[in-house]
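Note to self: keep these together.
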Amino acid sequence: MGLLDFLARKPFSKEHQPEIERLIEELIQIGQRDDFLAERPGGAFNAHCRHRRACEIGTRLHDLGGVPLMEYVLKRVRKRLGANLATHLSYAWADIGQWVP
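Structure:
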């Protein structure tokens, strides 16, 4: 599979690309700054110790493209932040749509 094949298979419409890119960058900033999970709730983290804004972004991504878009974004986050933080993001998204960490 070449680069053009990969680019052609994006699970979103071209009109949503700027928003999705912005949301990916925001997730990367959250991961670098706060992580996506915490040991205790409070501040940026909800009662389930999940980053509130990361969950809001996951919900928006689900609305735009469902699980395929969430998987695409998770891969992009994994590439930038590594497997550990990507796993944390996956668990933060546990109750969004049909997402299964």
